[in-house]
Design brief:
A: mainly alpha; two-stranded antiparallel ribbon; B: 506 residues; three-stranded antiparallel beta sheet; 1% strand
């Protein structure tokens, strides 16, 4: 099936971005409305395509559109083509739907910012790039979108780049992402070298013929790419700093959509990972490490956005873990991704709403008791909270428990370890999220007299309410009659054999609930029963200190990569100046010198010119003589 | 006693030359009998009309081929038509520049600084003898590449050279420099012509024939004394290499390019190169074809030292006209590699290169005529600093033409260099190609230095400015720019046309 509509999904927001950038200040008055309208119309196109998709049967739902022949060099043929299948439509609706809500929210949130138009042009650009990422029909097309969202993320993290620390945060995110991007480009190159193609369909068709070693190499490189974009261990350090961007950006890019691109990449490449068990296991391990890593950091953060960022890292760890569990896990990874998109975006918008009412204060120790002043924010944030910790029947319960269950059912040491990590993560999640809610909305007020907390305008809370609805209902909808699993089946081809069940679903759910209750209990004991000090206590255990320092991730990067890298660069600069430049300058000086010397033959006297001609003639004869001898 | 046979002339095939000569005679009459007031307009119209008519005639006979026109003393074939067409196009653009009378002295015969000269300047006289001179030179250039025997070749050489000697001395500003250039050019030209004639005599001695076909046959059957052939070939080459300014016969080039009025330099630099290399192509590809192994080392050495010398010495130049003169020397070296190739692609590439280079050269010198201060043209490179900020359009065009000279892609220069080097490489002249590429790299330095100077230096406040170009000058500059870009982006039509047309008749 082909459809000419696919390109409009991308073209509409791209057009909006271009118009806002080109029109400049002239569009200040209407730019935000224009951008929101274009994002919404892209969502409309997405809905229409979705409805058409529903009217077709399972195997025929995917549609493609070939735009033009992009690269044609020998056997390297790449078309700029788009593909909308059951997997990408999930993302299209998430990106445009949540994206549009966040556009609406931003109209109010950014209303005092002089550069609001620029912000909206970046947002539209992000939507376009992210759609290209999920719609591209080859790794190379995906790569363009992948770089595009990286650029949008960089521009938006550093949106207030007049603050040097924010600009640095943007640079940090960019550099960490470059490492991951290198992985993706290597994966594409290996794929072309071994399989001769980079399109999804082509790689899928030829994957069987390639050796396991090369598939493992591709898989590991794709994983490197995913760790960069999705802030997974060991490239996770940028996400916390990325919270420097305006809060709607944190919600859209650094919670709901862009950071999940790594999960998309791995699920999309299921045909590679299914044939490369080593790479697949590595994916699961990285996911398990990150979900604990993020959760531990989340326990120690006092900055509400950084706590949420750590939680994002941890939740994406769950998704990566799910994607690393193979055919049985893909659908649940995507399910968790979608439910997470709702509840985490909702909570970020809630955090933004709190900051909006508290003069941009982000330290939770200076909040307290806000539920009376911001009832709607409290309610929506609270629903998101119930969803993330996995309380039934909220969304997270369905998606997260499924991942824990599948992990346990892998069997053996692998199953116990991965499942145990996921279970532990659930308990910690409950702890730190309870801590966030309690410190922000419950307890005594700890803010200055000058602050006047107030509820945000409707333009802000309506999107929050809509996202809260998603946090409540999406889990049930996705699991009702296995709807999402069946929906995705043609793309990810689940294992037809019924897997062994080590633990019954009910057992897992009960165990998870117990873990969650323990987490909540500890948090309530620590933060609700006792007063929260306004200044973070200093006499804490070494573990708390390390957790506050983001588990030393920055110290590690600095000691292992940055300092030696700087030394290497300095050394290279010296070598470059002395050797390369020296050689080049030497040759140049020699040439100029030769020129100046030869110039002296130009005496201006006809007699000497005539002599040159005579000598030349004699030389010619001499030369020809020598040759013919 | 032999009966006198009236020569059979194919007038239509010779018409391009005859038209130009007729126009030249008419222009002489106009010079003698028409009132001073209307002379400039009359001469310009006659000159342009003649050239356009001649070009139309060349176009009309474009598919003709004949060895018998004028009793076999000229060959009308593909290369002849292509080279004549190129010369005429370049000549028309050159005349557009010459039409700006600002560059020419009022009274060429007056001694510099004398009272006659002052009077002539005061009366505002316009020199118009440059037009008939140009036409005579063009006629010689049209004959040079089609001449099929050594006598015709020599006559053509003189017909094209003598007017150029005079034209070089016509500059309005810096009269002494201009007259010195004219005299130098004349003396050295006469000297090299003597070599040419001497070489022709040796060749006749060797083969008993002055026709290129006769020499070709003689070499094939090799009856005579090889020494005569070798000396004849060397001396003939001296005359030809002098005209195309190959090292070590180049010494006149910088002085004459600098001293001559810039429009004349433009015309001379572009058109003489086409004519000279056209003749060389015919001689080396037809007459000397079978003694390739004798002349190949000779031209290899000449090509290598010409490329290197031109590129290296250009670096040390501080005057834009002298720099372009050395650049033209380096380009002569690149063109010799096309002759060395001695294959079909070498022939095609050389013809393409000549056209592309000629057009770009006219444009570049055309722009040099525009950069002036109160006392005439400014050719000191330092005073071109910051030109890009004051006259971005002119500076951009000039930069493009320089990039074409340097052989940067998307300009005609790149296609020219690429085709000519690949032809030489294909024929096994790898050393020349390596040196050619190296020299191109060296040459790129001084071209790009001018670009840097124009765009990245602060302007000097010394009254240097770009004058508003006259309509005709503007046409030349824009045409040259457009052709340079067009041939850089879509070279295929012209390359295909050349390759389907250019075959020497023997």
């Amino acid at each position: 099936m082909t459809s000419n509509l696919l390109v409009y999904l991308i073209a509409l927001p791209l057009f909006g971005s271009a118009i806002l950038m080109l029109a400049g200040r002239r569009s200040d008055k209407w730019g935000h409305l224009f951008a929101t309208a274009l994002s919404a119309s892209s969502f409309g196109v997405g809905l229409y395509l979705f409805s058409q998709m529903l009217s077709r049967s399972g195997g025929n739902r995917a549609v493609t559109q070939n735009l033009f022949s992009w690269i044609s060099v020998g056997t390297f043929q790449v078309n700029a083509g788009l593909m909308l299948d059951q997997l990408s439509i999930c993302f299209v609706l998430l990106i445009t739907g949540v994206g549009t809500l966040i556009h609406i929210y931003s109209i109010a949130y950014m209303s005092h910012d002089l550069d609001r138009r620029r912000f909206f042009s970046y947002l539209n650009f992000f939507i376009a790039a992210m759609l290209l990422l999920v719609l591209g029909d080859s790794y190379l097309n995906l790569y363009v979108g992948w770089e595009g969202v990286g650029l949008a993320s960089y521009l938006l993290i550093g949106f207030w780049n007049q603050k040097p620390t924010y600009a640095t945060a943007a640079k940090k995110a960019f550099v960490a992402n470059r490492v991951g991007d290198l992985g993706l480009s290597l994966a594409i190159m290996i794929s072309f070298a071994t399989l001769g193609t980079v399109s999804f369909a082509g790689v899928k068709a030829h994957a069987g013929q390639a050796s396991t070693a090369s598939l493992t190499a591709i898989g590991i490189m794709l994983l490197v790419a995913a760790t960069g974009k999705s802030a997974q261990f060991p490239l996770q350090a940028w996400l916390g700093d990325a919270m420097a961007g305006p809060t709607p950006v944190s919600a859209l890019i650094h919670a709901a959509t862009m950071v999940t691109a790594g999960v998309y990449l791995i699920v999309r490449s299921n045909f590679i990972f299914d044939a490369a068990p080593t790479a697949q296991l590595l994916v699961a391990i990285i996911g398990a490490i990150t979900l604990l890593f993020g959760a531990v950091i989340g326990m120690a953060k006092d900055d509400i956005k950084k706590a949420l960022a750590a939680s994002t890292m941890s939740q994406i760890g769950y998704m990566i873990l799910g994607a690393g569990l193979g055919p049985v896990g893909y659908a649940f990874a995507i399910m968790h991704l979608l439910t997470h998109g709702f509840f985490k975006a909702g909570m970020f918008l809630g955090a933004g709403s709190v900051m909006h009412g508290m003069d941009d204060e982000v330290n939770m120790r200076r909040y307290g008791g806000l539920r009376k002043f911001m009832p709607i924010t409290f309610a929506t944030f609270g629903l998101g909270y119930l969803a993330i910790i996995g309380v039934p029947p909220f969304a997270g319960f369905y998606s997260k428990d499924k991942i824990i269950e599948v992990a346990f059912n892998m069997g053996g040491i692998k199953g116990v370890t991965l499942g145990g990590a996921a279970m532990l993560g659930a308990a910690i999640t409950a702890f730190y999220m309870t801590r966030v809610v309690v410190m922000t909305f419950a307890g005594n007020k700890r803010w200055d007299e000058k602050a006047h907390p107030h509820e945000s305008p409707a333009m802000m809370w309506i999107p929050m309410v809509l996202l809260a609805v998603g946090s409540v209902a999406s889990g049930f909808i996705f699991t009702h009659g296995n709807s999402l699993v069946n929906w995705l089946a043609p793309v990810v081809a689940p294992n037809p054999e019924h897997h062994s069940e080590m633990l019954k679903p009910a057992v897992v759910s009960i165990m998870a609930l117990v873990a969650v209750l323990i987490g909540i209990g500890i948090a309530i004991m620590k933060y609700l029963r006792k007063d929260v000090p306004v200044v973070a206590p200093e006499n804490v255990s070494i573990f708390t200190k390390i957790a506050r320092r983001d588990l030393l991730q920055d110290d590690f990067n600095e000691a292992v990569f940055m300092r030696p890298g700087q030394k290497l660069t300095q050394g290279l600069v010296v070598a470059d100046k002395a050797l390369i430049d020296g050689a080049v300058r030497g040759v140049a000086r020699m040439t100029v010198g030769t020129g100046s010397t030869l110039r002296n033959t130009q005496t201006g006297f006809v007699r000497s010119y005539a002599m040159w001609i005579l000598l030349g003639a004699i030389g010619l004869i001499a030369a020809i003589w020598v040759v013919t001898l | 006693m032999d009966t006198f046979v009236a020569p059979a002339l194919s007038y239509s095939l010779l018409s391009p030359i005859l038209i130009v000569l007729g126009g030249a005679v008419l222009a002489v009459l106009v010079e003698a009998f028409v009132s001073r007031l209307i002379r400039p307009v009359a001469q310009l119209s006659i000159t342009l009309g003649t050239l356009v008519l001649s070009l139309a005639q060349v176009f009309r006979i474009r598919h003709a081929s004949s060895l018998t026109a004028a009793m076999g003393s000229v060959a009308i074939d593909g290369p002849a038509i292509l080279l004549q067409g190129s010369i005429l196009v370049i000549a028309i653009l050159g005349v557009f520049l010459i039409a700006d009378q600002e560059h020419f002295t009022g009274l060429a015969a007056a001694i510099p600084g004398s009272s006659e000269e002052r009077e002539a300047v005061k009366s505002g006289e316009k020199v118009t003898e440059v037009y008939p001179l140009t036409l005579f030179a063009v006629a010689g250039m049209l004959l040079f590449p089609i001449a099929n025997d050594l006598i015709t070749l020599f006559v053509a050489l003189e017909v094209l050279s003598l007017p150029l000697y005079l034209m070089a001395g016509l500059s309005r500003h810096r009269r002494l420099l201009s007259q010195e250039a004219a005299l130098k050019y004349f003396l050295l030209g006469a000297f090299s012509s003597a070599f040419f004639l001497f070489g022709a005599a040796f060749l006749y001695g060797y083969s008993g024939s002055v026709s290129l076909a006769g020499i070709h046959d003689a070499i094939e059957s090799s009856p005579g004394n090889i020494v005569l052939l070798l000396i004849g070939m060397s001396f003939l080459s001296v005359g030809l290499l002098f005209k195309v300014s190959a090292v070590p016969f180049h010494a006149w080039t910088p002085d004459v390019y600098q001293g001559a009025p810039t429009p004349v330099t433009a015309f001379m630099a572009a058109a003489t190169k086409v004519a000279g290399f056209g003749a060389m192509l015919r001689i080396f590809y037809t007459a000397f074809e079978n003694s390739y192994w004798d002349w190949r080392p000779l031209l290899t050495v000449i090509a290598i030292i010409t490329m290197l010398f031109g590129a290296i010495v250009a670096i040390a130049q501080r005057d834009i006209k002298r720099m372009l003169a050395y650049s033209s020397i380096a380009h002569a070296g690149f063109l010799i590699t096309g002759i060395l190739a001695l294959n079909k692609s070498g022939l095609d590439a050389t013809i393409f290169y000549l056209f592309a280079y000629g057009i770009a050269t006219i444009g570049a010198f055309g722009i040099v005529t525009l950069v002036r201060d109160s006392s005439g043209e400014v050719t000191d490179l330092n005073r071109w600093a910051g030109l890009g900020k004051r006259s971005p359009f002119i500076a951009t065009v000039f930069a493009t033409l320089l990039l074409a000279f340097a052989g940067i892609p998307l300009t005609s220069g790149f296609i020219g260099k690429f085709t000519i080097f690949s032809a030489a490489f294909e024929s096994g002249n790898k050393a020349v190609v390596v040196v050619g590429v190296l020299s191109s790299a060296i040459a790129a330095y001084f071209y790009i230095r001018v670009i840097v100077l124009m765009f990245f230096s602060d302007p000097v406040e010394d009254g240097t400015s770009v004058v508003i170009p006259s309509f005709l000058t503007r046409v030349t500059v824009i045409a040259s720019f457009a052709v340079t870009i067009f041939l850089g982006v879509f070279p295929t039509p012209l390359l295909n046309f050349i390759s389907s047309t250019a075959t020497f008749l023997r």
